[in-house]
Amino acid sequence: MRPAQRKFSLAGGARPVALIAWLAIVGLLALAAAVTWQGSGEAAFPGDNGKIAFTTDFASIYVMNADGTGQTRLTNNPPDPASDHAPAWSPDGAKIAFYSDRDGNPEVYVMNADGTGLTRLTNNPATDAGPAWSPDGMKIAFYTNRDGNDEIYVMNADGTGPTRLTNNPASDAHPAWSPDGTKIAFRTNRDGDHEIYVMNADGTGPARLTNALGQDAFPAWSPDGSRIAFAPSRDSNNEIYVMNADGTGQTNLTNNSGHDGAPAWSPDGTKIAFHTRRDGRPINNEIYVMNTDGTGLTRLTFNGNWSDTFPDWQPLVATPTPTPGPAALHGERGTAVLTEPVKIDKEKAISGLVTFTIPQPDTNYTATFVSTDVLCRGQMVTDKTTAGFRAICGGNFRDVTIDWVVIR
Fold it and tell me: Do the Cβ atoms of 181 and 163 come closer than 8 Å?
């Protein structure tokens, strides 16, 4: 059941019906335009494709299956719903971060994948928005105007340790963490026009990726980190573009007269979800999905007067049958060569890099690992002879055995 639409009132008695209708349309158009810039960038974390989270009516967080079925409401604040925006799945697919004004001003929150366990992470009289998880699930980047203008901050996943990453009189927003955790893409107008930049994860080394008239926003990394989707307005309306991670090869995927925004890659890297107003209703966004080359366009939501925006795709951990193989583990414990299972005595989440020797360089391999007691996922980067595998685990690591494996 969809939430009740927001009520508009005009002081001073009755007004002509035409004027009331015109003012309502103008107000809704302004709201639709505003939400275009009050979202977040995204990073697609590798894995199987899970559910899609999205915002409905600029007010509530929903989830649905990847084909649009099973739409389920997760947040609800009757009788006058708060504005819950920009859901962002954690790398393990277990939590959703978002921002909400339910406590009077926009703050960053987190909840479980089923909507339970709601927790407020920020508590500041300014606006905190656009949460984006780090690939290891330990940090959340966001943007805030607590310093007088929009800047990008990062905090621990429990809300502690907020740290400012950008320091510029311009507006820096829409952070999106690269899948390897080394970079953050973001939107900024520090050169006079809104462009996509990338910086190191500690805020150093900002570099401009786009340079075109119009406003470029909502960067979204592909799961392998090789490409970035974004939503520019350089074609007289917003479109979905994709470019290489260094800014080259910028290509328009949508090429439609309707507004397209907020791209989000599927965890398997084959699809891009986005919201659009291409269906003829100027104040109504719907969620669509397409192949990464712009083909295979499919509409997922059909919600009439309610606007569905800011999709984000849940990563699910694949569970292949393991075949043991040699590996080397590099992480907080130093370096150890592994030919047998290793015990990691840790009580916090870690991330490591596992390098596999490929017995047959011309054969395609998938690197993965298994554990019965902790939730783990990862990303593989290959060359001709090795596969580098960034492993992200969450849970209690005391006396847990992790088998690193290679799957053909």
Answer: no
